Give the backbone structure.
Amino acid sequence: MATEMGRMPFFYNQEGRLVQVDYALQAVSRGSTTLGLKTKDFAVLSSQVKPTRPLMEPAEKVFVVDEHIGATGSGYIGDVTTLLDQLRVAAQRHRLVYDEPIDVGTLSRNLSEYLHEFTMYAVRPFGASVVIAGVDALGVQLIQVDPSGTTFKGSAFAIGQAADEALDTIVKGYRPDLSVEQAIALSSQAIEGVNGGKTQIEHGVVTASAKRFQPRNNGSNAG
């Protein structure tokens, strides 16, 4: 049994890395180019809608989790939607138990713990990374959670195909005083820049003033 376990590609390699998590991260890197961007006044989520077969509707890419929180992801579509369902259930459970909306940090920790469980046993980790945007008592929040369950907080994230190049564009164009429309334009520029020009992009916005997450679909991104 010990010999068989030694052959199973689940846990650590000689460099101390979790092999299956590395595979999951590779799956994320092949997904749609997906961005998160925030200032103190708002957060924007943007994701490329990859072309599908003729006459097929494209998959939804930006999701409402709760009134004040939205999320998007990259990687295997089934894994992304499963993780989004996990977020929604956690948010609704919190409302039922505490009679108040969940804060973004608590929600991200819930997802982090859920993902981490899949790195501890001989099972397949989720091949998806999620970016969460919302407004709570601490203000506008933007958090990324990767397949290992690691969380990152910041003002901009990029995941999926050509993520590093897309993030470079965001970093060069980012200003703390960006307007919502300028942030959407910058995100679109970053996604189009690594995907060969005009492409369909779905956005979502939450503002500190309205405290509501609202998806936006730019269609062909011409308007």
User: Anything to note?
Assistant: The longest helix spans residues 77-98.
